[in-house]
Amino acid sequence: MKKIIFLSLLLVSKIGICVAQTTTYYPSLSVSVAQTAVHRIHYETLQSFWPYLIENQYIHLYRQGKEVALEIHSKNDSYFTSGDYLLFWGKSNDGTTDSSLYESAQAQANPSYSLFSYTATYVLTYEPSQKSVFRIRTERQNLEDNYRLCLTARKEQIQVFSDNYFAGLVLTPFDNEKIWDSNYQKAEGWMSKSFTENSPARLIFSALDTEGDTLKFNIRLVSQKRTTQVLEIIQGSQVISTIELQPAECKDISGNILLSKGKELEIKGKASLFAIASVKYDYACTLEPKEGQYFWKEPLPKKIPMNSQSLKVWNISNEFFPKNIPQFRDTLFTTGTQMVFWEKPVEITSLSPIRDWQPDTLANFLIVTHENLRESAQQYATYRSSQAGGAYRCEVVTSRMLYDYFNHGDKSTLAFQRYFSISKNQKNPIAILLIGTGAYPQIARKSVSAYARDLVPTNGYPCSDTPFAMGINRSIGRIPAETNAEVEAYLKKVIAFEKVENTYIGRKQLLHLSGGRYGIEQTLFRNYLDSLANIPQEKGLVVRTIGKQTDAYVEVRNVAEEVNQGIGMITLFGHSAIGQLDLDIGFASNPDLGYQNQEKYPFVLVNGCDAGDFFTEKKALSTDWLLSHDRGAIAFMAHTHLAYPNSLYAFSKSFYQQLFQGELSQTLGEAHAQVLKHEATDPYLKTTLQQFTLQGDPAIRLFKAIALPDIAFVKNSLSIDFQQDSLRINVSIVNYGKANQVPFSIHLFVNQQDIFQQLYEKTLVNTDVISLKIPLNSAWQNDTLNLRLSLDDEGVLKEVNTKNNDIELRDIHLKKSLALYYPSNWAIVSSPEIWLEGNKTLLAPVQLQLADNSDFKSIIFQKTITKQGVFRYLFKSIAKDTTTYYWRMITSDSVLLNGTFTYIPNSPLGWIQRTSAHFQTIKTSGMIWDKSTWKLQPDTLKIALYVPGADISQSNYLGWVKVNEQQWMGNGLCYPWSSLNAITLDAQLKPYLILPQLSCGNSPYWIQNLNENLLVGENPLLTYLQQLKVGDWLILWPHGRVSTQNWSGEIWTSLQNLGFSIAKIKALPLGTPFLLAVQKGKQNVIEKFGKSAISAISDTLYLLPETQNWEMTPPQMGALEDAKQVFTDFQSLEKPSNYELNINDASYTLQENLTFQPLSTQRLLTPIQVKFRGKQVKQASQLRRWGVLGKPYADLAIEASTDTHEVEIGQTLNIRRYIYNSSDSPLSDTTSLHWQIIQNGEILESQQEPLSSFVAHDSIALPVFSKAFEQAGDYVLRFVVNPSRKHEANFSNNSTQVLVNVKQDNIAPTMLVQVNGRIAQNFEHFSPNPTLEIQLWDNNRFVFLRKENVEILIKHCQACAWVAGNNSNITAITEEKGKLSLTYQATDWLKDTVWIAINASDRVGAKVSTKAYQMQVVIDEKATPVQLKVLPNPLHTWTRWSIENLPEHDYWASCQIFDVSGKKVYEVQQIVNATEKEIFWDGRNQEGNFLPNALYFYKLTLQNKESKDSLSIADTFTGKIVLERK
């Protein structure tokens, strides 16, 4: 391989560009050749690239580094000018160069068919320093030679088979486990379909223009079997050849047949499995002067009659150096062995310049992209080259540049391998970033669309980029983008993520998602994740685990809340597919799921199958999370093919150990590269290492921000409480990084003077609240205060970021230093002479401005207030009618205070809203403020589909479904084909699942697949229709050919009851596309039918429910002690009875005169509302003004919450809430806090605690409320402040409630039963009184499992009654939260058969199974346990492990050898049973080298062959072995 690479580099550097002394530039040109023929290039085609003087002697043409002869037709012998052209013999790409991808040329399945493209690349150069001698010349004729008349020749034909792509033999001993190496393995490639004993291969040689009876053939056979097979080639009934094929062998078979005995060959064998890559055959024929190729075996002089003047003949015996054979007196004279007759050459009409470059061998960040994405790739390199991006030395290359430089222009991943291996001995790691989509190589070879998507090819199949980096100290990732915009959007995410200022507490948190299908599998996956969680937890990180709660195939779990708050890493262990996880978190781009995590992007690691496969045209969940703008993930790592739990866990454990080691400063790629250094021999782990692929930048340092401490103030957390003689300052601090025990200082600066400092001596892990109390300084009374708090001014801590160590609060006035007392905000004034009265104690001048518009473009009054104290200015309104004025107090750089009032001549005083600026503050339900008009917001249902119907090939299908402009299905199949699909929407037009088990493949989870075969014993469509709720929307459409003819009468009745015209549906021709939609119980129906096999169908419904209320709620215009009158002014009221005013939950109907009846003096306790009702309202009435009179009060509030907390039984819930006074008025009376725990309306617990009085804008933090719930169910925690209702402006914010869901433990526990430390088989023999070991696991890890949860029953004959086991026989008990271990030592099991039954349940009574677990063991005094003998020991030349007393079934045995340091030096795996029970070792290591004499340790594990997971381990033996080779 080294020689090949060196030669490639040498040749390309030689032919690249002209020498340095030349003043003109002649780029090398790429010539694409797609067929084997004579080709022509005109001067005019070359001129645009070589616009200078061209001398014929300096033109060169190369193919794969070898020069190819040219025939130059030029009017001038010296120069190539207008009208001139070049001719050359060109051959298409046949795939022979692909052999370098295999371990040997013999391993290549089909050397006659390229893995990548028919197109061969020739390179045309102009080299003024070197004359070319490769010119097509006329073949010399020596008429003295004895030229013999030749009327016959031979023709060669080849049939290349490319019907099927064979990925090679699976790597495991089990054919059903589709595990393949991602590198090109033996026998992998294109070939025919598979042939078997019952389906033999037949080759027919017919329609041949033969001149004789003999046909010579060469057949390339490929074995697809893992054992040796014998094949026979049969002509007629005669066996003419017998072939032995070794496993995965590729063999050429040659022979001759007589066509007179039959023109058909049959190839077959007993228990055979093989394919044919190609068939070459040649035969004698009459030599006719027409276009085509002929050959002879020997180079004898021959003369050939020639009667055509239009044909030209070349001697192509040397394909790189053809010769022209001229006609002489209608005769050809030649000694060649191969010639071609041709008339018109293939025209080359386009050329491509080859970029001049040399690889930068010192670059440590390599970007490989496509020419279309080069612009954004260069932007990426610019960032990575900057200090902020890591100061990498970057190189940007394109796929085409690599093809040209490293593979002579031909498309092949060889070019990538050679490029990445240039500096493989470089000690420092190199990051590789692929930018662009890739495709399955075998699909890109056949599909035009896939070829177009294959911008940056991947390594092989199963698809993965990782093998590019294995073994060469590289890390690799990919941005699978198709546009520059997608790359730029991802770069924006990376820049934001890596900003030093981008700190959040979630970076220290991991979210583990535990999937699995059944209880034991869910327990296994949960155990894997719990084991992984220990690794980051040792570094102080927090890990939260969410598990599946059901055994549904897919369980939806929206984690938007966790992701939006910020989280560092998400790891899933479960089942997965390209577009879905079994604990499904959905697509980040889906707005309905609510992912809004800008700058807080997690890294996602999925342990499952196919989740990393982004090489198809289907939309991958992984790519969606990576490329979603301003949301989603920063990187996504997942397996691209089939994977198994043990190897997934082994990979993730190693990856976690690398990622969370040291100071947590490793990049994702560096951690991945360390894992890839493991040389795995186990096929499961080997392929897992290969096929775990990283999407995203490998240079991302995921936990760099938490590698060191990073203390900071929480934004906007600084608050001040004014007390009589002091200031109380409260502020929250947070540590975004590593916890550190080093004390640090907190400094307080007032007006830039350091007046106070305190030492923080606790270990700050996450957050804390600091309260400082400082005495008041009399000098501050009439001054503006600027406060600044600073952390660690001395720099004791080495922090990631010190820019967040300060927090400020400016322009604080101890007294009400700036105020406009009159008019108050929103006030009504009635006199045109308006006194503006207020107080200013600020030293700086302040401007008071008035305007009649909110943007202050036209200021109608302005005064500069310079003096301190009370001010009073007269403003005379010249308005004749109602006018709203806006006022503000400003300094040179900021607005200090602002408000609004309205002048209404001769009106009472109060508050009012009447302008657009006012109305924008009104909250509404069912209506919107649009510019200057109130409008109803109609509900709209718009459905659009592109539906495939009958007789549409799946490979040609691309369909989609859009609901209200949101695409819900597309870019992939909703399998299976020919099925009925459905979506259900609730009354708010939100989708949800009716039958979760029928969620549809790679589509969003709410797409339902109603194929008839999917529900055992039920009809999916009928079940679906019966479970629809009133008000739900149902949308139905077909997918391929769907027949309605076999629908039952119950289905038709259900559809008719929904409102569909079943006569129309029944009349549809078979396979017609259709759209059916209906709202159950409302008779809103859509029925649309397609007119062609593929149809675009759409319809829109505007929905106005029969009973709909619309509401307007203005802001609370003041906390009011009393209200004398409330008024509104509407334009175009239809019927006053359709409108009402709601005050203090009392309703007042509007009168004809648009005024309200006077109100008795009362306080306003709730916001005022105007309600509109009635289905006849078609447009919103226009509100023109709104007013109320009142007086302010204090206002206590408790921190509101709409949280729902999910906890398990026994898990402690901790909640903290805050109480504050949001008013300028104090509450001088003492009050109290009342909390309650409520379930189903019943108060279970209640307590009242006293609270002290509140000053203005005061706040207190309540003690943490802690509670562990013992019973499942839904609870309400209700907190009420001021329950006695002492005088207060607003009681609506005095209470809050928290919903608590204590989850019912519906998941059955899992149990493992062993006898004498092994999983016993029924009627297995044991010696008397064996030990019974029982382990019980519960999904709830917060409650203890007790021995009472397990019942052991025993009987000594089949007809006997069950008897409880003796408790005194229980010799060991370990009772833990979520786990119970129990040992039962039998004392009376002496002979015969013992029947054992075990019932087990968890604390809530959920049983392991509905029936008791039963087993039977045979007590046999002669029975002996499985034993292991190791002989000889010490080992001199070889030793063997002999496993005795194995039962009569197969076990999977794994024997591992370790040296004294614990390093594994050898491992062997094989099947053992009662007859084949020995494992041999000759003292060599895994590479086949002899190990030194020493002491070694062995570990031999037996597993039941039926299952590979760790819970089926039958026996494990360990011991020592001494190696003493003499």
TrEMBL record:
Keywords from the named record: Signal
Xref: InterPro entries: Caspase-like_dom_sf, Gingipain, Ig-like_fold
CDD domains: Peptidase_C25_N (cd02258)
Signal sequence interval, chain numbering: 1-20
Gingipain domain: residues covered: 365-702
Pfam family, one: Peptidase_C25
Name this protein carries in UniProt: C25 family cysteine peptidase
Natural source organism: Flectobacillus roseus
